[in-house]
User: Which sequence fits this backbone?
């Protein structure tokens, strides 16, 4: 049975709902509004999704080398994308859904480390080799026809 189109909003679309005004949005604001719904360590990935999927122009505001805020430079075009995809009709409010905690696959298997075995190296004595004995028994046969 074929599956239908997912109605669940993607994390970058949730981020777009905050940034669509065109004003600077600090990382602290994003964390307070969407911190329970998106993974904050993937924020740069979400900005890349905004650029590639929604054709948004994202300006990053920096303090030295550290990014402190993001700003959407073309909010009108991004609003058209949001209308086309159905993000504006979703009646989404930030902070309403909580994300699942990410769990390592090893922790999911409840794996336990194996006990280390102490392996003693085998000590073998090296015996001196005996010289090879070569016997020279040549037998000469003459074939005459």
Assistant:
């Amino acid at each position: 049975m074929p599956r239908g189109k997912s109605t669940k909003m993607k994390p970058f679309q949730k981020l777009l709902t905050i940034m669509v005004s065109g004003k600077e949005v600090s990382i602290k604001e994003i964390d307070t509004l969407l911190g329970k719904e998106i993974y904050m360590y993937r924020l740069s990935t979400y900005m890349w999704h905004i650029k590639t999927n929604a054709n948004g122009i994202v300006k990053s505001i920096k303090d030295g080398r550290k990014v402190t805020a993001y700003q959407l430079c073309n909010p009108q075009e991004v609003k058209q994308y949001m209308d086309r995809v159905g993000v504006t009709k979703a009646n989404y409010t930030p902070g309403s859904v909580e994300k699942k905690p990410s769990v390592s696959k090893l922790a999911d298997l409840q794996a336990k480390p194996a006990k280390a075995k102490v392996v003693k190296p085998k000590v073998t004595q090296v015996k001196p080799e005996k010289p090879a004995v070569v016997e020279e028994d040549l037998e000469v046969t003459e074939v005459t026809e």
User: Anything to note?
Assistant: The two ends are 90 Å apart (CA to CA).
